[in-house]
Amino acid sequence: MNSAKTALADRICTTEPSEGISLLEMNTPIADVVTITGSLLGGSAFNPPANRTTAQTMVAMLDQGTKSQNKFVISEKLEELGALLTFSETQHQIRFSARCLKDDVSLVVELLADQLRNPLFPDEDLETIKTNMIGDLLRTKEETQFMVTNRFLREVYLETHPNYMLPVDDQVNLIQKLKREDLQAFHEAMLGRGSIRVVAVGDTDTTVLSKALRDGFGGWRKSSLSMADVEYTTAKKMNGTQQTLEAMQEKTSVDIMLGQPIGIDRDHKDYLPLMLGHFVLGGNFSARLMSTVRDQKGLTYGIRSAVGGADKTDGYWYVWGTFSPQLVKKGRVAAMEQIEHWIAGGIEKNELRAKKTTIIGSYQVSFSTTGGIATQILINSERGRSVDYLDRFPEEIAAISLDQVNSTIPKYCQMENILSVAAGSINDNWEPLS
Amino acid sequence: MKENFEYIRNSGGVEEYKLKTNDLTVLLMEDHSAPTATFMVTYHVGSRNEAVGHTGATHLLEHLMFKGSVGYNKDSGNSIWKVLQDVGAQINATTWFDRTNYFELLPKQHLDKAVSIEADRMRGAFLKDEDRQPEMTVVRNEYERGENDPFEVLDKNIWATAYQAHPYHHPTIGWRADIENISTDRLKEFYNSFYWPNNATATVIGDFSVNEILSLIWKYFGKIPRSPHKIPIMYTEEPPQEGLRRVEVKRIGEAPIIGVAHKSPKGKSQDTYPLHILGSILGSGKTSRFYRNIIDKGLAMDVSVWDHPFHDNGLFVTYAFLTPETQPEKVEKLILDEYDSIQKDGVSEKEVARAQSKIRAMTAFSRDGSYSIASHLNEAIAAGDWTLYTTYLERVMEITPEDVQRVAQKYLRESQRTVGHFIPATGSDEEKA
Q1: Where does a domain end: B221, B255, B286?
Q2: Of A34, A205, A391, A369, whose CA–CA distance to B31 is shortest?
Q3: Which domain holds residue B271?
Q4: Residue B251 shares a structural domain with residue B382
Q5: Residues B274 and B214 grouped into a single domain
Q6: B138 closest CB neighbour out of A83, A301, A370
Q7: Contact A285 B89 (CB under 8 A)
Q8: Domain boundary among B186, B221, B256
Q9: Co-location of B214 and B249 in the same domain
Q10: Residue pair A309/A260 in contact by the 8 Å Cβ criterion
Q11: Are A21 and A74 in contact (CB under 8 A)?
Q12: Which CATH number fits the domain that encloses residue B346?
């Protein structure tokens, strides 16, 4: 890995084309294609307390026209080039993502900047977007996996925590209340130069990219937003095992989540050992849960284990699984047996060795497309790490000892505090409906 | 090592070889953009090769192919998942109408493991009854998850209504009773009929040299004989459709979905290309006709046109995910009005040029990463000719507005139409009581 590590950091060129904008660029052998991804602070954690759907709606309106050109003019320009440009929001960031041919980079960056800087938020489009968002939200009520996640996070966190998910009907009500002025005020208060990161990978040209970014974003107001502005409460305390049901009608499969809050984030020293421990439990097909609950017992199509929601906030660990209504009780028992064995006995030396190789190998594989490379560079930067960390990560994984993993697991995972949530057509005892 | 292979042709940077001893087709493309490679074996068998009573057999067999083979199995401590995932490989398999593919995307230094495993299970898979029983419930849960999704259920019903004799009638995952009852012997029969080198294509894309990979393929696949029998062919043809068909699915849900489907030509037909342009004009991006006339009016959250080219005749389908209060009939009429308009007045040169630009860029994007290239080749292999992928852009760029109008007139006819509606019911609906 050493040569690959050195090569990675050395291949990323970091510059600041304009104050408050960092450009991380990596030229790769692909011909003609450039993938651009980036972000700035202003995601859902920055929502005003009165309406937790503001950031999401504002982002959905970014491609609905600007002060100088309507959405169809922008779309025609992009589509005539075959270019793609989308916006999304995460817990802390507003993200953008573009793919285009090399010759079209300048125009795509110009359109990106115009949409980020000068959105018009037209009233009639806002009504259409709200209708569509509400329709999409209502459709999530048909999805057992979405509903189990939503309920699990509501059980683990208070409404004031970034990991909390509002019930769907509450989100619908809040979206209905939003007005153009709310979006304008949020945009005005949150967005600006300061935390803008742009990652470009592929057939890139530094001069062209830097000029396009300077032209597009130079002169935009400064935003003083920082991660320190996010205030939140920690997760609820789990006292004893709890079993909860999100009842749904006419569902042929049930989704379950078992888990608990961990009280630490990704930067904590215990995070990587805990993540590795979970990888042994349920990180992939050859991990314990899939080997036993699926492969040996045939109880499920899929079951996995991971640590989630730990980017700059206190996260949680979970086991997710899918079962037929007739097998869900059995499935839960089988999963709990594995969790109990894992907490009490820890993992074995050969498992640790194998999963370290898996994680390091997967990491290498994730750099095989321009999109994969760009995402890794962006996430690394958003986490406040230097590009060197992209090379150090495999070393950190390799250095984790068996003792570290086995002493970390019981610190954050206790059988007596596991929350069990199901979503589907079963009764409160998790038995099939008669 | 090249002497063991016959060089066949090169198209778009992909080289085709044939392994002389057993007729295994080999497709190679060097791509040194990352130190990884994708190895994929495509068997020319899918759910189109199944019949009543054993629907879903191809897919269930695909699952059992991971349960162990002579050289790679749990008892020896080297199961397929373990060997490959331990080195960070992304591995899986998929089954569809016309093909079954097994693939590994992995660090290049481990390519030999992927080649060895795929060769070993080509003829050495165990396929034990004691493995089938637990795997059946796994697949049944996969089926149940599909049944949870209103769109999947509607799609399944549209295909089953549009195709009555041809095996595209049944879903690749199979009907529930067939999944539950198919015997291990029947699965073995299926395996012994179709899993042979002369019914497969090995595709390798990534960071390797041609000599090195041919050497590996010869080492592991060279000893496998060609099938002792002719590979069975599927000869059922769909009788002509003679009028509009409708299907309705009513169950608990939140918003209606509609699908308007028309019979489309075989994937290898030259009409595939103008139909793709037509699909883009209708449903791709904010400039598309459906975005302006349906989504932008708040009638649907999404409208997309789906026209995947298959080995046999397929479907050109417009799916619309309606906003909760929208009446399906209204959007169905808007879709059909747009078809009528194109049949009568055609499309503009600007619309065609824009669709071509999108496809030109998408083709360049599709070359980003070895798995993406292998995956596109896999679908072209399934349709009957891998060069459909490498020559696609060239064909698309030749299309004129007149071609688009002609295919709209030829295929979007009422007699060839199947319309499906998903109607959300509430728990209090009488029919559901």
Answers
A1: B221
A2: A369
A3: 245-432
A4: yes
A5: no
A6: A301
A7: no
A8: B221
A9: no
A10: no
A11: no
A12: 3.30.830.10
Supply A353's token pair.
């060795």
With an 8 Å Cβ cutoff, are A357 and B135 in contact?
no
Please spell the DSSP secondary structure of A308-338, one letter per residue: ES-SSS--EEEEEEEE-TTTHHHHHHHHHHH
Here the tokens at position B238 are 């769909």
Q: Which CATH number does A9-229 carry?
A: 3.30.830.10
What secondary structure letter does DSSP report for A18?
Answer: E
Rounded Cα gap, residues A300 and B135, in angstroms: 9
What gap in Å lies between CA B269 and CA B128, rounded to an integer? 41
Judgement on whether residues B64 and B172 belong to the same structural domain of the protein:
yes
Among candidates A100, A127, A253 on the partner chain, residue whose Cβ is nearest the Cβ of B145? A253
ipTM, two decimals, is 0.89
Are A80 and B86 within 8 A, CB to CB? no
- Kindly list the distances between the CA atom of residue A189 and the CA atoms of A85, A123, A161, B134, in Å, as whole numbers in the listed order: 24, 20, 21, 57
B202 and B310 fall within a common domain? no
CATH architecture designation of domain A242-424:
2-Layer Sandwich (3.30)
Residue type present at position B41: V
Tokens of B258: 């509609």
Interchain contact B71–A (C-beta under 8 A): no
Asked if A142's CB is within 8 angstroms of B254's CB, the reply is yes
Q: Is B394 helix (H, G, I), strand (E, B) or coil?
A: helix
- Would you call B254 and A101 a contact, using CB atoms and an 8 Å cutoff? no
Whole-number Cα distances in Å, B251 to A305, B149, B186, B427: 32, 11, 35, 9
Q: Is B386 a member of any domain? A: yes
Is A83–B361 a contact, with Cβ atoms under 8 angstroms apart? yes
B229 within a domain of the structure (yes/no) = no
Q: CB neighbours of A208 closer than 8 A, spacing ≥ 6? A: A105, A106
Domain boundaries, chain A: 9-229, 242-424
Has this prediction a pTM greater than 0.90?
Answer: yes
* CB contact at 8 A, B204 and B27: yes
Are B216 and B249 members of one domain? Answer: no
Q: How many domains does chain B have?
A: 2
Do residue B201 and residue B277 come from a single domain? Answer: no
Alpha-carbon gap, residue A194 to A93, rounded angstroms: 13
H helical segments located in B230-327: 272-283, 289-293
Which residues in chain A are contacts of B86 at CB distance < 8 A? 286, 354-355, 357-358, 361
Q: What is the pLDDT along chain B (433 residues), one digit of tens a residue?
A: 789 999 999 999 999 999 999 999 999 999 888 889 999 999 999 999 999 999 999 999 999 999 999 999 999 999 999 999 888 899 999 999 999 999 999 999 999 999 999 999 999 999 999 999 999 999 999 999 999 999 999 999 999 999 999 999 999 999 999 999 999 999 999 999 999 999 999 999 999 999 999 999 999 999 999 999 999 999 999 999 999 999 999 998 899 999 999 999 999 999 999 999 999 999 999 999 999 999 999 999 999 999 999 999 999 999 999 999 999 999 999 999 999 999 999 999 999 999 999 999 999 888 889 999 999 999 999 999 999 999 999 999 999 999 999 999 999 999 999 999 999 987 655 444 3
- Scan residues 325-384 of B and list those with Cβ closer than 8 Å to A: 353-354, 357-362, 364-365, 367-372
The answer to whether residue B194 is domain-embedded is yes
Residue B17 maps to a domain: yes
